[in-house]
Amino acid sequence: MSDIFPKWTNKLPLRLLLGVMIVGSVVTAGVTYYFTPKYTRVGYQPIQPVPFPHTVHAEQLGLDCRYCHNGVEQSWFSNIPSANTCMNCHNQVLASDARLEPVRESFRSGQPVSWVQIHKTPDYVYFNHAVHVNRGVSCVHCHGPINKMDEVYHAKPLSMSFCLDCHRDPAAKIRPPEEVYNLNWVPPENFAKDKGAKFVHDWKVNASQNCSTCHR
Amino acid sequence: MRYWLSFFFVLIVASLAVVGIAGFQGSKSRKPPIEIFPDMDRQPKLRPQAPNAFFTDGKSSRPLLVGTVARGSHYQDTPFNTGRLPSSTNFVAEMPVGLTAKLLARGKERYQISCVPCHGALADGNGITKKYGMAVVANLHDKRIVSMTDGEIFNTITSGKNLMGGYGANVTVEDRWAIIGYLRTLQLARLGLVNDVPAELRAGLK
């Protein structure tokens, strides 16, 4: 009786197994690398109707974030300023610059400038700006160095693990309330260990990890 | 051996193709993020400042209807809310809130956020925007403004005046009075004489 299966087929199951394992690990690596907000969100930089530079306004002019995002301390939502806020200055500065035409149009008509929202948690997540910024969590932790951005991009993943990393150990990130809006602040050495832990204790900071904190 | 080589070749080309198309983590993209499992990520509920096709003007944040007031808003006709005497157009002479150290500290913080860019830290009209073409910014130490009633300054902050835009939407009513309190201390400090400084502190002056 001649061979039904030639000799090389003896090694076939082993080779197939090896091949599947190699392909499997490459695919797993790819999924871990790509199927995460670190890839899908970070770097998102939409084309805005006006190329608004935070570098010029926040860094060069030294405007406080609250000059424009004035709701951030009182509300869960950090508002985008209306055209009126821009026109306080731009009625005199660059008063007929073509880039600012959408702002002037909005100022005249009352229809808002159609800014594209960049940071957006899923609707089943409850987030709140006021609790964070009033307790010494700076914008820079969640938005990156906005004051160095010519156009805002999504700098941090804002995934659940990103939120929890800080909620598990807020002392490492917390800073004095007067430095929250100073994005260039660098903590002095050993700040987290000495002062951070003290703030967390003294202000009874409770960065809860209960599911119902963020999913309510 | 040949099979293995071609197998690895195909695998590497495929991986490179994926990386080539998808790029790296953190690379800039103009396209909105892909929501890989979009389960309930976007629900049909209103978000502030978001577009909404339901309303004819397309805004989800609804403007106030005529004859209504927003909850928690300051609508009553009192000097605190309007800077004017009730049912008149006369400005109140003095601020209707008590001047405390806490109020002044708040006023200083708010002044630095909202007024310093134009009027400068000393309120002399030399803010940073002057360098960039804001030519006419009032010097708040002008005699006219020093002798102005608190109510009129309140009104200027709320609704603006001439080339200055209103800050009613950006600065709360409480904070507007706090700013006025702080502004008055700046004005007083500029007008102060050596004799106003307590004797024991005078040595520290230059």
Give your account of this protein's structure.
The complex is a heterodimer of chains A (216) and B (206). Chain A is mainly alpha-helical and 216 residues long. In chain A, 42% of the residues lie in helices and 0% in strands. Chain A is extended, with a radius of gyration of 25 Å. Chain B is mostly helical and 206 residues long. Chain B has a domain at 98-191: Orthogonal Bundle (Cytochrome Bc1 Complex, Chain D, domain 2). In chain B, 37% of the residues lie in helices and 0% in strands. At the A-B interface, helix 1, helix 2 and helix 5 of A face helix 1 and helix 3 of B.
Q: What letter string, H or E per element, gives the SSE order of chain B?
A: HHHHHHH
The CATH top-level class label of the domain at 98-191 in chain B: Mainly Alpha
E-strand count of chain B: 0
Structural class designation of chain A? mainly alpha
**Low-confidence spans of chain A:** none
CATH superfamily of the domain at 98-191 in chain B: Cytochrome c-like domain
Count of β-strands of chain A: 0
How would a crystallographer describe the biggest sheet of chain A?
none
For the biggest sheet of chain B, the summary is: none
Question: What features would you highlight for this structure?
Answer:
A: 216 residues, mainly alpha, 11 helices, 0% strand, B: 206 residues
In short:
The complex is a heterodimer of chains A (216) and B (206). Helix content of chain A is 42%, strand content 0%.
